[in-house]
Sequence to fold (533 residues):
Amino acid sequence: MSTTENNVNPVQHRKVHLIGSGIASLASAAYFIRDGGINPSNITIYEEMDKAGGSLDGAGSAKDGYIMRGGRMLNFSYVCTYDLFSFIPSLGDPGIMVLDEIKAFNKNIKTHSQARLVEDGQILDVSSMGFSIRDRLDLVEMMAASESHFGAKRINEWFEPNFFKTNFWFMWDTMFAFQPWHSALEFKRYIHRFIHEFKRIDTLAGVDRTPYNQFDSMARPLIEWLKEQGVQFELGTRVTDLYFSLTGEKKTVQSIQLIKDGKSKSVKVRLNDLVLVTIGSMTADSSLGLMDSAPRLITDKRDGSWKLWEAIAKNSDQFGHPSVFDSRVDESKWESFTVTCQGTEFFDLMEEFSGNKAGTGGLVTLKDSNWLMSIVLAYQPHFIGQPDNVTVFWGYGLFQDKEGNFVKKKMADCTGAEILTELFSHLKFDEVSDKLLKTSNCIPCMLPYITSQFLTRSPGDRPQVVPEISGNLAFIGQFAEVPDDVVFTVEYSVRTAQTAVYGLLELDKQPTLIYKGDHHVDVLFNAMKTMFR
Ligand SMILES: Cc1cc2nc3c(=O)[nH]c(=O)nc-3n(C[C@H](O)[C@H](O)[C@H](O)COP(=O)(O)OP(=O)(O)OC[C@H]3O[C@@H](n4cnc5c(N)ncnc54)[C@H](O)[C@@H]3O)c2cc1C
Fold:
């Protein structure tokens, strides 16, 4: 009997099934090829959408309007992400790598915000963090406390009400999208993980950007490279369940149940084949509006990610507790919007107002906005192929259930035109508001699960990347547990990819070490100084 018939398929015959095509899966495929010696044509990526890339999306046209559900800030401490893109060739110049491109871009276009917080149409001086002695003590105590101390505590159970009025809170929570009711533990991890950014939190000078939106600059070159290697993409394919067998004490995936073109199918998984699932998704069930219509809030889990995790979780307590993250939409939702402008008028006005050329300012947060709106004017063009006379910006509001200050409607009920009216009124661009409205196309995007990864949780709610009981299965993405690292980042998903590949293949290789700023005296000293500013 051959080894393959015996189900002990050697490395070159081993198959890898990746469910989901976000950065977690794409990175896993890349590491299986680079470090695992897996034959690329034995790697299949299943994706229910008709396009790969997951949350790292960017699409549309100058005519119909561009759309990206999210916009990403990167950081030098994204060591896994930067490792990944150090071997993925750039689309524009295959002679260099994507990482070279990102580094060259950030050397040229430096972020130094001069209008981080705006109130009543005026730029605020945010050089002081605004902390009371109590706030400082609470922060230090949070850093010193061990993770086991936190349980399912919320941020507003740790800090006094004054903390949520400080400049620090407004800058930190809009940079990372925290809400007071989110997990204090997740907040603690962010404080440790980005403590090196404290000293420049008011200027965002530590933020790295990509030359274009992250679909064009990150997802696209990675997808192209994987396709060139021979990786198979099964788009429009929803995975509905995994069937397990018990092999000794291990649960081993035997088959993958999926639906393609309306037909159910079962894919056999052999003993040594591997299955990696991106569980949950922050962009599941997102919906788009238009200039004249509001997006819908979808809560029936019609996309596959949550239902698949719920189905898998029934097989073992070690496979996590999805209901902790997918059943509190009121605590996890918010709304983003992408605006396509014909001409540069809004950009010119913003440059004059903020003192920042597009691409150098980062987030501008309207502190007194009931919706807590922020916008980002990226370097232009932001999309490959974007015409010269077209400009694109992105924004979001954290409190979509509140009435606007000017438009007396909840953000969630607003059309793209109404969101823009509210924005222009805050900025006191009233005189040109009508003209700007006529030349702008704002596409709102409702995101029911956008901060589901920040919801309060307890140990075991997130499964280990490779659970002890697993024979051939790993969990990747935002809802698998990675010690010390922070969710809501590309970095976290790439780290789960490295952890899964090295763990499942039992390679003598560890994921790239996390950069720990709090292990450096100078970083701690600067952070402390910032806390007293
Ligand atoms: C608004 C916004 C702002 C952000 N800002 C930042 C930032 O500033 N910095 C930063 O680092 N990160 C940021 N992020 C986060 C970052 O984009 C995500 O963490 C990352 O892209 C998640 O990748 P993933 O592969 O883990 O999951 P996803 O990208 O969510 O991918 C999951 C994929 O799996 C597919 N899928 C799921 N279940 C199934 C199934 N059953 N069958 C078939 N397919 C399935 C889904 O359709 C999806 O394509 C932001 C994200 C958003 C949306």
Summary: Residues 214-229 form the longest helix (16 residues). The pocket of flavin-adenine dinucleotide is lined by residues 19-25, 46-49, 54-56, 69-70, 72-73, 238-239, 278, 281-283, 304-305, 308, 336, 450, 477-478, 488-491, 493 (CB under 6 Å). The chain has 15 helices and 18 strands. The chain has a mean pLDDT of 96.
